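Sync notes, pocket subgroup
Present: LS, DG
LS reminded everyone that the earlier model was apo-only. Rerun requested with iron/sulfur cluster included. Inputs:
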Amino acid sequence: MALAEMNIAAYHGVSHEPLTEPEDGVRHNCGVAAFYFNTPDSLSNLIPALTSLNHRGQEGVGVVGLLPDRTMTIHRDEGLVKDNVRQIVRADADVHIALGHDRYSTSGGVDAWQPFGEEGERIVTAHNGNITNPLSFLNDIPLEERTILSSDTHVLHKALNAQPEESVEERIQKILPRVEGAYSLTIADRDTNSLYLIRDPSGFRPLHYAPLDNGNGYMAASESVAFIPFVRDATKVIEILPGQCIRIDADGVSEIPIDFPETKSAQCIFELVYLGGAASEIFNTNVHAFRRACGENLAEVDIEHGFIPDIIVPIRDSGAAATEGYSMKFIEHLARAGYSPEEIGARIPREALLRNNSVQRTFILPKGRGSAVTEKFTIIPDVVRGKKVVLIDDSVVRGNTMTHLIQMLLDEGASEVHVRSASPPVRHGCYYGVDFSGSDQELIAVGKTEQQIAEIIGAHSIAYINLQDMVGIAKTMSGRENDFCTACFDGNYPVAVDPDLLLGKAC
Ligand code: SF4
């Protein structure tokens, strides 16, 4: 067996079984946070930052701190940040650099939690995204280390660590222009106490940095929401642009040019649709305002078609902003059309679906638990009985939760249930850090018309925002002519993917 084949086989010997069962909708990617302290400060500063990014990855959490004596303090384990607070506090110390990571993955186990970094290694690495050609880096990694590789990030981490005679910048310059796919990276150099922040040239995943309010250095994070406890003035939060590499060290902030091949930007529009926190700015766009505008667009189309619901009902937290936009457009329309205040008031969005907060993590329930939806939501019958309900969500990906909710609403006496999605039908898989394949088991819209989808989920109708309209909203709000990745909607993949060079979809 050839060496490369042997090592690929060794990698594939690692279990790829998901650690959790996904809830309906997409599984997230990951979130990163980092601090550079001029004077060593507590590693535990990562706790609030990672907590506010926990929506990006809920399988595991990791923190690594570089102490002044160049040793490391580490905690990495499964669970939410709140499940790991005691252990992080136990690992607490005053550090020069702190790297943190919220993880969602489909592969690996405890040894795949990030950040990667061990005693004896110069570089510590945390990554959000998915590298699509990790197997092309096997020859950059010593033979004895190839059999322990646990994810795409681990390959990159080992490749960066494998050139001990070179500076970190030489290594970055040598390795990163060959890396394909999505990566927002935080990298710490133990020898020089430097923090590097890098976004891939397509800019799939977000990354930001800002000076700390207390003057003791800088922080970095996937989303602007993570900065709130540390940087009160949001205008100080700077977006790292596609293809940019920033170094932070004792001399302050500098930019390191990397000779990337010419690449079109392809920011993941799903960050705005679903992945990003509603309180964040991502790609220079206010996430809540984007979702609200998509909801307005849905309402405009319904008004044009003469569709008037009796009651507007949001789904999940991320459906709330679209519902707000949808209902405001409707209220304006009804007022113009001469409806009375009572008639308008009756249509104002209602909490008809109450979430049972004691059932927070349905995605860890065993397979076959359709009843998990029933356990998670309670319908208020009086609100929906005899009404034509419009259910609004950010997206309809698998449709399982939607199917159960529609049945619950009809069981409680709703006369009709209509579904509106603030993103277009998802018909293709993602290779850039969000975990859904293009199979019809995972994506309800694959090979189906809207009418067929409505029949499957038991809705009286389903309508999606038009892709061009959604991209237009993103371009207008970002104020840039940047191109967005829309591959899961239209199949136009901005970075070609060679299946022979993939390592699962870990991030
Ligand atoms: Fe985002 Fe979809 Fe592109 Fe994946 S395929 S990066 S989820 S827009």
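DG: The two ends are 29 Å apart (CA to CA).
LS: The pocket of iron/sulfur cluster is lined by residues 204, 268-270, 430, 432, 434, 485-488 (CB under 6 Å).
Action: DG to write up.
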